[in-house]
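[Q] Does anyone have a clean structure-token version of this?
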Amino acid sequence: MADNKLIELEYRGNIAILRFNRPSVHNSLNGKLMEKWKVHLDEIETLPNIRSIIITGAGSKTFCSGGDLNYFASLKTEKACLEMLHRMQSITNRLFCGKWVVIAAVNGKTFGGGCEILTACHFRIAVPHASFVFKQAPNGIITG
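[A] Here you go.
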């Protein structure tokens, strides 16, 4: 899949819609997706008419499963892990503290880092079959 399709951006009037587009891996996040997400936020910031951002996932099964475990396994050094964490923190801080109202349109299961993304959104609207699981807790890991 082309990098520009990992997270899609579309506009509807004064609304920007960001859609995680990796349904085959439960819309999990990897480095390329996070980088494209940052680029999309940079673009949205240049548009003064955008009043809100809706974040959702492709398909009807999963909003976001958090970090892609194959991507995490590729992070071999402490420096690489910290860079990834700082990149994701920067994205969630921009959502929470930005000039837009951020709405999560939860279209299915949400795990781990996907739930962390939800905490950066101002509103969360979910389909009836949505579920939410912080996988970090049973593993003794502090959330991002």
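[Q] Thanks! Anything notable?
[A] The beta strands are 7-12, 15-20, 52-57, 62-64, 101-106, 109-111, 123-126, 131-133.
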